[in-house]
């Protein structure tokens, strides 16, 4: 088992990643989306079509850095590329499955998982780890299993036993992490970065990982650049990103004997 695709692509909806200078040292390709409108939180169809056209041109599909969790819906476009049965393994403080009374007319960062389960035939199941509460969430989807994460750590064995396919795709929103490990623009969970890295290692060992993405960058305006809170968030998020990337790529290299 191990990693199906290689390389890393960085998506730029804003300037966030360009401020993470150490992150830039990893070989990668860039895709800019600065020109697109109506893509924050919700995405209109015209912009979604342009996003998917640009994604289709990339060569490095192993890892994708998305940016803020406001753009997490991009994961659903990445999942459309998978041509074999697979399971989405999502680490997120929010299940992103929306509510039963919400409209499906616009793809959003809060409902993209239910959209993907309904519209991507090869996606057989979503396994979601990280919410501390399921309040106000519709958790009745028959092909979604949600593991709340609070004071009780979810075992890797339990996660793996709920994955029905050999192939998985991993998606990470850093709001699943404690604030000591990352800072996002959403309320955050209680998972440690060390626990998250362990889960990634286990998935690489026992499953074929088609690819992985990371979001959860803090959104700040340019005039906040010298704010100590911004600098703290930038430092923590870059450090978390780098540790996740190292675990992902080094773990995959070890498994294939590279």
UniProtKB/TrEMBL annotation:
Example of a GO MF term: agmatinase activity
GO terms (BP aspect): putrescine biosynthetic process from arginine, via agmatine
SUPFAM superfamilies according to UniProt: Arginase/deacetylase (SSF52768)
PANTHER family: ARGINASE, ARGINASE/AGMATINASE
Family, similarity comment: Belongs to the arginase family.
Protein name: Arginase
Organism the protein comes from: Bacillus smithii 7_3_47FAA
């Amino acid at each position: 088992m191990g990693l199906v695709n290689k390389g890393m692509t960085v998506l730029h909806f804003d300037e966030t990643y360009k401020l993470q200078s150490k992150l830039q040292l990893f070989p990668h390709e860039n895709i800019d989306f600065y020109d697109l409108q109506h893509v924050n939180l919700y995405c209109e169809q015209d912009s979604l079509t342009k996003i998917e056209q640009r994604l289709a041109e990339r060569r490095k599909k192993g890892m994708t850095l998305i940016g803020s969790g406001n753009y997490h819906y991009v994961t659903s476009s990445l999942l459309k590329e998978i041509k074999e049965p697979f399971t989405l393994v999502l680490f997120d403080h929010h299940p992103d499955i929306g509510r039963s009374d919400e409209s499906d007319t616009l793809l959003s960062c809060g409902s993209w998982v239910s959209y993907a389960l309904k519209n991507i035939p090869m996606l057989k199941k979503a396994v979601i780890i990280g919410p501390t509460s399921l309040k106000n969430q519709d958790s009745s989807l028959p092909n979604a299993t949600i593991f709340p994460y609070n004071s009780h750590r979810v075992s890797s064995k339990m996660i793996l036993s709920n994955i029905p396919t050999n192939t998985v795709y991993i998606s990470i929103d850093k709001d699943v992490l404690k604030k000591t490990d990352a800072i996002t623009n959403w309320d955050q969970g209680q998972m440690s970065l060390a626990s998250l890295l362990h889960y990634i290692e286990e998935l690489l060992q026992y499953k074929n990982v088609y690819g992985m993405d990371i979001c959860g960058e803090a959104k700040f305006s340019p005039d906040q650049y010298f704010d100590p809170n911004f600098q703290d968030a930038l430092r923590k998020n870059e450090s978390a990103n780098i540790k996740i990337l190292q675990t992902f790529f080094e773990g995959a290299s070890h498994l294939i004997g590279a």
